UniProtKB/TrEMBL annotation:
Keyword vocabulary terms for this entry: Cytoplasm, Nucleus, Protein transport, Transport
Matches recorded under Pfam families: NTF2
Protein name: NTF2-related export protein
Highest taxon listed in the record's lineage: Eukaryota
Coiled-coil portions: none
GO cellular component, one term: nuclear envelope
Subcellular location field: Cytoplasm; Nucleus
Keyword Cytoplasm annotated: yes
Protein's GO biological process: mRNA transport; protein import into nucleus
């Protein structure tokens, strides 16, 4: 399977799981993975999923606009850049987001280097970094 197809399949799986069952993301992270959320550092798959499931919105829907990838690190590793819209239940407008993943051979998101950054734009002048996973 070519890298673009792998990246697109990973992104589809990640966001479908995030939108329907965030606890199901646990097997995509390793114990050395780290999530930084508003200055708080959270390490390990279990702790990251605990944080993701405790976010103040329970239902959301991601609409992916772009998926770009390039090889990175050991054979089979890649950087995946994703952008799109995030619609929260009860909100009238979608939020813009972008996220970067570093995947390792075997399909897991690795650490301790940069894995994911989620920037959400609330309007044309306001942007807030919600999640940074290292």
């Amino acid at each position: 399977m070519d890298p673009d197809s792998v990246a697109k399949a990973f992104v589809e799986h990640y966001y479908t799981t995030f939108d329907s069952n965030r606890a199901g993301l646990a097997n995509l992270y390793q114990e050395q993975s780290m999530l930084t959320f508003e200055g708080q550092k959270i390490q390990g798959s279990t702790n990251i999923v605990t944080k993701l499931t405790s976010l103040p919105f329970q239902q959301c829907q991601h609409a992916i606009t772009t998926v770009d990838c390039q090889p990175s690190g050991p054979a089979g590793g890649m950087l995946v850049f994703v952008s799109g819209n995030l619609q929260l239940l009860g909100e009238s407008h979608a939020l813009k987001f972008s996220q970067v993943f570093r995947r390792t051979l075997g399909g897991r998101v690795s650490g301790p280097s940069l894995i994911a950054i989620l920037d959400v734009s609330f309007d044309t002048v306001t942007s807030r970094k919600l999640l940074c996973v290292e």
